[in-house]
Write a structure and sequence with these properties.
Layout (H helix, E strand, L loop, with lengths): L1 H15 L5 E12 L2 H5 L2 H13 L2 E2 L6 E4 L11 E8 L4 H11 L4 E8 L7 E2 L5 E8 L5 E11 L9 E12 L5 E14 L10 E11 L2 E9 L8 E13 L2 E4 L3 E7 L4
Antiparallel strand pairs: 1-4, 1-5, 2-6, 3-4, 7-8, 8-9, 9-10, 11-12, 12-13, 13-14, 13-15
């Protein structure tokens, strides 16, 4: 009898527990099709996109991207299969959608209603990706685009106040269909901030040239200096890297040094 009463009380408790109320959200969506097989075929492209986003400091929630039938998410137009990248609170969506759209312009957001516990928004760590104006269009319809992202690190654990600020350049080949085909990155502007260790030479680099030098090549040059006080030590130089597109691959060449100058003491 006691067991019967306990079960009845438990069922009554569950029945009286209010369900989580639906709340407005923004679904971050990428690519879709009326045909499920066609949408599934884009999985590899989505994996490449996700890998690049991680390098750019943007991570998708666990279990995403996921292919869903649009009718299963209230607010979406039924009849499609779409790749869902995340579900964000309305005020958080614009700052996440912007960096993704720079890389994948076909990404978009739609207003939906979901239980609050289903919110799972991509997270941006550090500075977002920025777009450079320079592009290199290929006969195949693909385009080599240049993106940058500022990074701040503490390279020496023994000197936590010494921080390195670096602008990383991403050379990204995007196909005619909007798919990320390949991406390689190079360090660009670099400078140290904070209290250096005694004798630290505070190297600094500035990108001085980024230009197209052929139908499939870009020239990337940066000028680097040090605050050395040692006579005869290297004080400045230029570093040049040629970035080439070979088919669907981005190939940075060997970085060459030029205009090396040593500190002259009198």
């Amino acid at each position: 009898m006691r067991l019967t009463h306990a079960i009845a009380a438990g069922l009554l408790s569950l029945a009286s527990t209010p369900a989580s109320a639906d709340a407005p959200a923004q679904a971050i969506l990428w690519k879709g099709s009326r045909n499920k097989a066609e949408a599934e075929a884009r999985k590899a492209t989505g994996s490449t996109l996700e890998a690049f986003l991680r390098k750019a400091g943007l991570s998708l929630p666990e279990g995403y991207p996921r292919l869903i039938e649009s009718k299963t998410l209230p607010g979406l137009k039924p009849g499609f299969w779409v790749w869902l990248l995340g579900l964000c609170e309305p005020e958080a969506a614009p700052s996440i959608l912007g960096p993704i759209k720079r890389l994948a312009p076909e990404t978009y957001a739609r207003a939906v209603r979901i239980p609050t516990e289903q919110l799972a928004c991509p997270q941006q760590e550090g500075a977002p990706l920025e777009t450079r104006k320079l592009t290199l269009k290929r006969p195949s319809g693909a385009t080599l685009r240049v993106f940058t992202r500022d990074e701040t690190t503490t390279p020496d654990p023994e000197h936590p106040n010494l921080r390195l600020t670096r602008t990383r350049y991403f050379f990204t080949l995007i196909g005619a269909n909007g798919a990320v085909l390949d991406s390689k990155d190079l360090p660009g502007d670099e400078r140290f901030n904070g209290a250096p260790a005694p004798g630290f030479e505070s190297p600094r680099c500035d990108v001085t040239r980024l230009s197209a030098t052929g139908k499939d090549t870009l020239s990337f040059i940066r000028h680097c200096t040090t605050a050395t006080t040692e006579c005869g030590a290297l004080a400045s130089l230029d570093e040049r890297t040629v970035v080439t597109v070979e088919g669907d691959t981005v190939v940075p060449g060997v970085t060459e040094r030029a205009n090396e100058e040593d500190l002259t003491c009198h």
